[in-house]
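Inputs:
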Amino acid sequence: MPFFLYALFFLFIPAGNVIAGAFKSLTGGFTFQNVQDLFKTQYLDAYKTSIEVSLVTAILGGALGMAIAYAALREGTPRWVRSGLTTFSGVAANFGGIPLAFAFIATLGTIGVVTQFLQNVFGINLYGSPIDFTLFSKTGVELAYLYFQIPLMILVIAPAIDGLRREWREAASNLGASSWQFWRHVGLPILMPSILGATILLFGNSFAAYATAYGLTAGGVNLVPIQIGNYYTGDVLSNPHLAQALAFGMFVVLAGMMLLYIPLQRRASRWAK
Amino acid sequence: MRKRIAPSAVVWLLVGAGYFFIPLLATLLFSLRKTSTGHCCSLSAYGYIVHDPQFWSTLRLSFQLSLETIAICLILFVPTIYWVHLRLPRLRPVIAFFALIPFVVPPIVLVVGLLDFYKGSPQWYYGSPYGFLATAYVILAFPYMFFSLDAGFRAIDVHTLTEASQSLGASWPTTMFRVILPNIRVAALGGAFLTLAIVMGEFTMASLAAFHTFPTYIQYINETKAYPAAAVSLMSFGITWLAMLMLLFVGRGRPGRIQIAGGH
C-alpha cells in the first residue's frame, strides 16, 4: 500500500536516521561520544530549561485550563459561554508560533501596549527594579506558551468534566457531603487519570515547541529545540551528529511521556459513557 | 430549578477572557501606530505590508504548499482508510498508533532526520519547497487527516454502499468517486481546513530547511519592522480564524471531534 511506503520513507526512516545518527562519529563509525556530549553543561542546561518550562506551563496551564473549563461547564453558566469557549479554544490552541510571539512583544515588550499603559497610568515600570521583568527570558516564554497551553487543556479536559454525572454529585450531597468532600472523594479521583493524561499532552506540546520561543527570543533562551535550530540556522555546532543526538534526546523524553500517557488514557476511558 | 451563575465561575471566565483578548487587542493597537512617530492612529503598517512583493510571494507559496499537501494527503489516505474499513479492520489500530508517532517525533526532530537522510538527493526535490517541504507537511498533517477521515468513514456504512454500487455494475473508480467520496465530503473538507491552518503557520521546518514561506516572512518582518510586524501577525491570526471557522461551518450538525493542530 502506498500509504505504508510513504510513512516508511518520510516518517520511519528519518526518525530511525536521527537515532542512528546520534551514535555515529564524524568518520561514520559507531560512538557513544555524541550522547555523552549531551551531558556537557550547555546541553544539560538546555534539557533542564526545556523540561522546567514544559513542567511549569503544563501544570499552570493544566490548572488554569481546568478551572476555566469547569467554570464554563458547571451548572448555572449559560450555554453560549460554553460553545463560545470551545470555538475560541480551538482557534487559540492553534495560534502558536511567530505571530503569537509578536502578539506578546506588542503587549509586554519594552514598548508594548500594556507595558506603556502601566507606566503612563500607574507609574509602574515593568522593566525596572524591583520587578525586573523581561519578556525575552524563560518567564516570557512561559507566559507565551500558556496562551496555547490553557486552551489545549480546555479542549482535552472538557469531555471528561462533562462525564462527571450529575447523579454522583446529587448522591454525594444527599449523603451529607460538602462540596469539598465531593471533590476530594469523588470528583478528583474520577478525573485524575484524565487530568494527568492531559498534563502529559501539554508537557509534550511545550517540550516540542520551537517557533514561539525562537520568535520571542531569537534563540536567546537555551531550550533544546533552540539548540537544534541554532545548528541549522547559525552553524554554532560543528558536528552534525550532535544535532541528531539532541533530537534523539528529545525523542527519548517524549517516548517516555507516551509510555505514561497510554495507560492513563485507558484508565480515563473507564468512566466514559 | 435553574441555578444562577456562580461568582467564582465569573471570575475564572474573566481571567481566561483577559488572558486571551488582551494580547490580541494590544497587537491591534500596536499595528495602528504610525510607522514614523509611533503614535495612533494610522494604517501605514498595513500599507507597508500589502505593498511588499515578498508578502504576496510568500503568502502564495504557503497557500500553494497547503493545496499540494491537502491533495497528497487525500490521494494517499482516502483509499487507504477506505480499504482498511472495508477489508482490513484489524489494521485500523495499527494506523491509529502510527498517528500517535508524530507526537513522539515532533517537527523539530523529524526535520533533522529528513534533512540528513535526503542530503544529496536531487535538487528538484531537496532544493524545492514543493518537493521537500510538501512531503514533510503530509506527515505533519497525517494525524489530523487520519482522525478526521476515520470519523467520516465510521459514520457511513462502507460495506453496504460498496456492495450496492458494485451490484449495480459500477467499477472501482466509479464507486470511489461517485459513491464514497460524496459521502465523506464533510470529513475530507474538515481535514483539509486543518491542514491549511497547519501549513499556513508552519515555521520550524521551513526555517531549518531554509525555505522562505509565509511564517518565515513574518519572522523576518518581526526582526526588522515593529509596526508592520503587528499588522502581519494579525493577518496570520485571521487566516487561522478563517480556517477554523470554515472547519466548524462544514462540520455543523455532526458530533465533532475537536482537533488540535501543532506547530508552535
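Residues 193 and 273 of chain A are 16 Å apart (CA to CA). Flag for discussion at group meeting.
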